[in-house]
Amino acid sequence: MATSSNPSSSSEPLIQTLTNSGWCFQHIHQIKTLIETKFSGASTTIRSIESELCNMDLRAIGGKSLPDSSTLRKSTHIQGPKVCSVRDISKSSIAESSGGSSGKRLLRLKLTDGHTEVTAIEFTHIPSLPDNVVPGTKSCVAFGDYGL
């Protein structure tokens, strides 16, 4: 009977949904506490929790979910999705020199899980990714196969 009123048990499905959506947490109890204190009302949604998490630094809350560079070199793909923070973004000088009127771009992004940093390349245009992404912006990345 008492388990249904236990806030910790009510946060478990929310944390599982966040994890399935690509979030990886260093200390689950920290996220449980956040949910229990800040989102104790019945109208708690994943979107409201994610909005709060997006304003937090992944170095403080994120668990290691990206492989080290040595492991990455031996792999052909990364299992996703992963929520990463954008550390840096730059346009390819090749795309710029070809006369930007074609609408094509080639972005190079430095992404981090708060522990490991990887470089990602946007080969095809992602409409939801603007040219002027601010460092610290969180993005859910579904990694596909990549060439070495």
Word description of this protein:
- The protein has six helices and four strands; from the N terminus they run H-H-H-H-H-E-H-E-E-E.
- With 148 residues, the chain is α+β, with helices and mostly antiparallel strands.
- It folds into two domains: 60 residues; 73 residues, Beta Barrel (OB fold (Dihydrolipoamide Acetyltransferase, E2P)), CATH 2.40.50.
- A hairpin with a 4-residue loop joins strand 2 and strand 3.
- The longest helix is centred in the N-terminal third of the chain and has 14 residues.
Q: What global shape is seen? A: globular
Structural class: alpha+beta
* CATH class term of the largest domain: Mainly Beta
What is the average per-residue confidence, as pLDDT, rounded to a whole number?
A: 80
Order of helices and strands: HHHHHEHEEE
How many domains? The number is 2
Low-confidence stretches: 1-5
Cα distance spanning the termini: 55 Å
Second CATH tier, the architecture of the largest domain:
Beta Barrel
CATH topology of the largest domain: OB fold (Dihydrolipoamide Acetyltransferase, E2P)
Number of β-strand runs: 4
Tally of helical runs? 6
Radius of gyration: 18 Å
Give the strand order, joined by hyphens, for the main sheet: 3-2-1-4
Please indicate the percent range of residues in DSSP E strands (runs of 2 or more).
Answer: 15-25%
- Give the helix level as a range of percent: 25-40%
